[in-house]
Amino acid sequence: MNDIMLSHLEDFSRGNLSSNSIVSPDEKISTTDTDIDSIAIDIQIERDKAYQQGYADSAREQEDRWKSHIESLQTVHCNEIADNRKKFESCTSDFISAAIKDSIKLLSDSFEHELIRILAPFLEVEISRNAARALAACIVDVFKKGECGTIKIHGPKNLHAFIEQYLGEYSPMVLCEDSNQIDFSTEISGGIVSTRLESWLSDVKKLLEVK
């Protein structure tokens, strides 16, 4: 009985089922693994793309942030340099201005001192001549008013000829005597007439010593 049933089953399998229409369990499993691998590959590709995109976005954002930070630092640095330049220029300007003023004052003082030193001898000679001229005019005026005898004048020898020139016709009636002082002195009608040149030159010398 069992043999008969097995025989019928074999015939059934041969007649109704072909080898091409039956998919073995191994083939189904293989097809399923291929689909899974394909899906896994697609997911990995998407992950790689997403990673690359995220990395690029992050790098760009980081670069933009650093650029902004660097620009901000450069702006602050430039502003500090500009402020320091203004302070330096202001301090330099004040220093130069003060130095120029001091130099001008020093040159002015030095020039004034040198000018006085150079002009002092000329002033001395000119004032001495003016004093001699005034004294000669005074003596001439005395002679014109009346007889007064011989008049003696004490003064520097280098101005005797100058006095005689201004005395003119009255020159023979005046006796000039040498003096170690630059002042002129003479006795007229009982009174002594004297200049004050020594006092003036003393003031000039004091001025030179102060300078």
List the defining traits of the structure above:
211 residues, alpha+beta, rod-shaped, 4-stranded mixed β-sheet, 9% strand, single chain, 4 helices
Summarize, please:
The protein has 211 residues and is of the alpha+beta class.
**How would you describe the oligomerization state of the chains in this entry?**
single chain
Ends distance: 158 Å
- What share of the residues lie within helices? over 70%
How many E-type strands?
4
- The average pLDDT is 71
The H/E string reads: HHEHEEEH
Query: How would you classify the helix and strand content by structural class?
Result: alpha+beta
Shape: rod-shaped
Instruction: Tally the helices.
Output: 4
Strand neighbour order, sheet with most strands: 2-1-3-4
Largest sheet at a glance?
Answer: 4 strands, mixed
Low-confidence stretches: 12-31
Strand percentage: 5-15%
Computed CA radius of gyration, to the nearest angstrom:
65 Å
Question: What does this entry look like structurally?
Answer:
It is a single chain. The chain is of the alpha+beta class and 211 residues long. It has a domain at 128-210. The protein is built from four helices and four strands, in the order H-H-E-H-E-E-E-H. The protein has helices spanning 2-16, 25-145, 160-167, 197-210; strands spanning 151-155, 174-178, 185-188, 191-194. The longest helix is centred in the middle third of the chain and has 121 residues, at 25-145. The radius of gyration is 65 Å and the shape is rod-shaped. It starts with a helix and ends with a helix.
